[in-house]
Specification:
Layout (H helix, E strand, L loop, with lengths): L1 H5 L21 E7 L8 H8 L3 E11 L16 H4 L9 H10 L4 H13 L3 H10 L2 E11 L3 H5 L4 E2 L2 H4 L4 H5 L2 E8 L1
Parallel strand pairs: 1-2
Antiparallel strand pairs: 2-5, 3-4, 3-5
Helix pairs in contact: 4-5
């Protein structure tokens, strides 16, 4: 909000479960969904529900970490310094992953959350398929090797994923720390 004030622009910001807002159908020219979709079980229904909130020609910005990237399982939320810094551990089979989390004395709530994320994960291919199945089109796709948010978090300069690597399924998932999409209904 401060950004809009300093730029003398109008803007209304609502932090809410959008599906609880009943009076705002066909209202939003832009909906931001940042680091959310990888936590959603029914991604198709989730995206379909947004259509009624978009104004004509409205778009949705969606950002998420690719599932197979080193920390795509959100294991950085673990209390164990070893687990929280262990890349790719979330790709282990569920039973082994759970056993290791418990071995390192992770709280039951953390284990449950990490296993839920493993279940609801989002790969680039899965996201593209869901977009197509829900009658949206991708207006813009940008895959990042160094997530733009890492500038603030870690002082790292953002870098887009190399175009050749971005074209190779699975490999792009390993090297994409963040996936930015702009989509609109077809």
């Amino acid at each position: 909000q401060n950004f809009f004030i300093t730029k003398r622009q109008k803007g209304t910001f609502i932090a809410s479960d959008i599906f609880l807002l009943k009076d705002l159908q066909k209202h939003f020219p832009l909906i931001l969904i940042h680091d959310v979709i990888e936590h959603i079980d029914n991604k198709e229904q989730f995206l379909r529900n947004f259509k009624k909130y978009l104004s004509p020609n409205g778009m949705i910005f969606i950002a998420f970490p690719a599932w197979q990237m080193p920390f795509g399982g959100h294991q950085q939320i673990a209390r164990s310094k070893i687990i929280s810094h262990m890349p790719f551990i979330h790709l282990l089979p569920r039973i082994l992953y759970k056993w290791i989390l418990e071995l390192f004395s992770e709280q039951e709530s953390t284990v449950k959350e990490l296993l839920t994320i493993k279940y609801t994960r989002c790969t680039i291919e899965m996201f593209r398929r869901v977009v197509k199945q829900t009658d949206y089109q991708i207006v813009n796709e940008q895959l990042y090797f160094i997530n733009p948010h890492y500038k603030i978090k870690f002082g790292l300069t953002p870098h887009k994923l190399n175009k050749t690597i971005a074209c190779i399924p699975f490999i792009r998932n390993v090297f994409s720390t963040s996936c930015f999409y702009l989509i609109r209904p077809t």
